[in-house]
Amino acid sequence: MLDYLASAGCLRPMRSLSDRDLLVHDIVMFQVIHRVQGPFQRFCEGLKTLGVLEKMRRHPDSFRPLFCYEPHMLTADQVDDLFNIHLSPEGSNRRAAEEMVVTFWRDYLQDAEEGPSKLQKILAFATGATAVPPIGFSPAPSIEFIHRGDDDFSSTPIFPLANTCVNCIRLPLHVSYQLFKEKFDFALGNTYGFGRV
Questions:
Q1: Is 3 exposed, middle or buried (0-12, 13-18, 19+ CB in 10 A)?
Q2: How far is CA 62 from CA 12, 67, 74, in A?
Q3: What is this structure's pTM?
Q4: pLDDT tens digits, 141-168
Q5: Nearest CA-CA partner of 193 in 139, 132, 125
Q6: How far apart are CA 33 and CA 84, in angstroms?
Q7: Catalytic residues
Q8: How far apart are CA 13 and CA 155, in angstroms?
Q9: Is 132 left (phi over 0), alpha (psi -120 to 50) or beta?
Q10: How far apart are CA 118 and CA 189, in angstroms?
Q11: Distance separating alpha carbons of residues 172 and 104, to the nearest angstrom
């Protein structure tokens, strides 16, 4: 801590409790104000270059969404738009089964919209995040499909799988919406942390 205290200008002997309180005050001032003052001033100078700072001061409400993140309630359409769906080649038997599951996925999102936190749980299941980050996801969330014989499954998997490292959900190929919904609900309710259901 010696180097930190020296660069903060707080390196001095402590002889009483009031010295401790003064040290804490100085460290907080350094950490919160003085340390960021230089970069902040350079940022303001950059904004002045094209007159942006002046416009920001005149119209702060117009610029607030650009600089201040405000989370919003997710909708089914927003969650659906986040995911890139990786389908098999057109005309294949796999593609027909996958397209049926895509409709189940979209119906499930619509049903989830009725509950306040279910869309957040779906997003967390796939990405580990309950809200969309201000700069989006990297990599973009995706949906893949689990076919018999994939990943050395000896039987057809019935639960969705998630890999939050690559923001991917792998959906099993169910033939009814009710079964899809039941298994997805089970997966959401019984998944804590990383790994397979």
A1: exposed
A2: 46, 10, 23
A3: 0.68
A4: 999 999 876 665 556 678 999 999 999 9
A5: 125
A6: 42
A7: 165
A8: 70
A9: beta
A10: 10
A11: 11
